[in-house]
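Hello,

Following up on my earlier ticket. Below are the three sequence lines again, exactly as submitted.
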Amino acid sequence: MSAPLSTPSNIAVASNRVRAATRRRPRASVVLALLMLVVTGLMIVIVPFTPIYSPYGLDLAHSLMPPFTSWTHPLGTDSLGRDMLSRLAVAGRTSILIAVPALLINMAVGIILGLVAGYFGGLANTMIMGLADLQLSFPIIILLVMIVAVVGPGAKTLVIVLGVTYWVRYARLARVMALSLREREFVLAARTFGGSSFWILRKHIFPQLLSSLAIVGSFDLGVIIILEASLSYLGLGIQPPTPSWGRMIFEGQDYTSRDIWLVVLPSVAIFLVVASAQILSQRFTGEREAQTSVRTV
Amino acid sequence: MTVVSPDEVLRVEDLHVEFTVRQGRVGRKRVLKAVSGVDLAIHRGRTLGLVGESGCGKTTLVRTICGLQKATSGHVYIDGQDLGRLSGIELRRIRPKVQVVFQDPYSSLNPRMTVAELIAEPLRINGCYRPERIDELLEFVGMTPAVKGRLPAAFSGGQRQRIGIARALALDPEILILDEPVSALDVSIQAQVITLLKRLQDELDLTCLLIAHDLSVVRYMSHDIAVMYLGRIVERGPRDEIFERPLHPYTHSLMAAVPIPRPEGREERRRVHPRGDVPDPTAPPSGCPFRTRCPRAQARCALETPPLVAQETPRHAVACWFPGPPGDWHQPLDEATAARAVEA
Amino acid sequence: MSTAPILMVRDLVVDFEMPEGPVRVIDGVSFDVYPHEVLCIVGESSSGKSVTMLAVMGLLPRAGRIVSGQILFKGRDLRAARPAELSRMRGGELAMIFQDPMTSLNPVIRVGKQIGEIIRQHNRRLDRRAVRARVVQLLKQVEIPNAEARVAAYPHEFSGGMRQRAMIAMAMANDPDLLIADEPTTALDVTIQAQVLNVLRKMRESRESALVLITHDLGVVAETADRVVVMYCGRVMETGSVEQIFNDPRHPYTAGLMASVLRIDAPVGDLHMIKGQPPIATKRPSGCPFHPRCGLARSPRCETEVPALRSIGEGHLAACHFAEETPDWIARELPQILVPHLEILP
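Thanks for your patience. The regenerated structure is below:
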């Protein structure tokens, strides 16, 4: 009952690639996103090595200077005379150093649990998915606030706490992938060679996740940064004197009537990083769709 | 404890494999007897062709033989070892002995792995990887080692099937299972792959289990043939005997159903097919499973399931109360029998 | 046949759009279909057999384009027909059934309703009861047991063979003049295939429709065809009556296919193999598309000159420069074709 299958012939795949090919030219949004990332990246990396660097130096004589008015303080100073540009740079570094490990923890936990749940099914699946449902039914912010209130704020806490908020997404992805692939013939073949479950998960199932990980991961990076900023705004995140974008917004609130840049600058910084991450995530999605849609002739 | 002769590479004894299925999401649970009491043996160097259509249980049988499926009862002996008694580790160690060439050349090769990686996989898992072996195997199946670095997408169905064959031979298996190896290929390529398999069969003195849903494929390579229907073997014997003197009505219908590429005589050959459809495997007919479609069915067929017993010659066995050559097959069915046959 | 063909296809050329440029998938195909006859188009994958009929029906995928050629159905130019006209013809005079009935039947609409819709589209005068009666009658004709009850069933409640027969019922509902069946039994078991083909034959004969049956199975061709078109790589290699094609093949490809097909009525011997692989559409060989694999090919002619489909007998055409020499070549290289055959069943 199986005869020559309609092979995904070159013709069919290509006719979809025609539509994708016209999008191949770098989109304006992607260029923009990369630009934004580069700008922010440069700021974070280079500023600490410049002579104007002084995130902590109080200089009450020169407090509340507007941006673009002085060479020593290109982006102005805050209420305590500290250099805004330096503070933004340090804050950025901190944010990245917290968000990236948090993302990786989310991914690692999620992927492992998801693969186990999907591939082995049964009790493991029930327990893990139950845990996931439990987590999802809790409002994230409250959960985080509770944990931080108990454990006390700080960078390490933040990484761990953020690291366990979003694992469910990755678990779902990994689980679905494992479920759909575990009965595929090439997986069965691997079993007939004596391949252990670990081998199969590692060599056959996990690699298929990579493109989805790029999409979701880049999106989540933005989300985590915003979450961290929110927590810092509330005072539950990064503690002063270490600057953080969220806290800077909080500190600048009282000055919005006149010295609005105190709030605008950190907001723009957050926007640049998060928006570019999300745009790149979209780009990965588009590329994946073009690759995987195949119609047979 | 059954004593398995050292010559029997594969022996299946009274194998039953059952699944519980649920009809729909809230329906009752039903038992699906995919394999009901199958006995088989394959001796070293012989090829058994197992024929049956969808729903006959051959897929489940094959998976049980490979150790991918647990039997509900009965035994599978590979080289004398009872699969059911092996622990997980022991089972994995016995795997190299039973290798499979899969049906679908498009899904049995991981599309992201190169040819070299695909063939190397069984070797690596079993700790016997040698790069020369890959070249050897590719040449065995008529491909040049130069293609090692390419992905499956670069190859046609027939070539992919060759890669699958090379991979299955990598571990020097005791028994090679060919699961519909050519049904997904073009006609002109089928001949190439079958010829390759025959050559390998001779050169390597392979023991094979060949699964197919139609008789023409099985005929070219098998020494013995077994016919399955709804989880049971209904006829079994040496190839030539089965083809010259089929005794089970289902075997007759399988043979009659194969379209013959010769226009002459087609009016006479107007294939008589068994009426009705294959019964629901969760609710098989009482007695003989084929009786609802059989032109010879009588009262006895509903009451007792016929056992598989030798007829005429010791190696030719049939499970039928009224076995015999087709003879009256081409007579039109009388209305009463036809009516009974249709109410499946 | 002294009557005029019901379908005439002349020099059909179809391209598919690829990023590198257009790819020729059908490269000048011509054939005729006469009323009431069964024409089998046989070819392997990438021969273009399905695309040809999709082009005729106006059902090419978006990337496909008819570059040139004529398609005349009952004298009407199908290429010039407006989409509304074509829609009207489909399901009425011109019907098509496909390989996988699961994708052609709407899974959420009851079978009876789907068939009824087709009937009503072409017979607005019939009332509901009459339509239902016709649907039941059709289902009975295609040997669906318990037709009265099955009218209300959904497609997934039917087995594969039953679905395909329901498709036949749908296609034949309005007594089409031409039915096109694209590999209708390829996905089915052998005994179910026999049943479906039998039903198809009965239905067709009672309505006297012409049938174009697309298949890769030479056995099916021998058992059903009146005439045969053999396609390879987007071109017609040979066409003729079924006896001519099977007993006197003049194209080396046809002969090669005959000799390499697995059959149960010949002694088990060495199978013939056509060396090489069917080419992919983007790498079409120059000259005769079959020349790289042909045992009769001779340079330079076969590599440079595309053979025209020319007449070599009554109603027998072959696209080969050396068609006259093929019988000798067969006698030398492919004696299997000439071997007498076994009787399988008394």
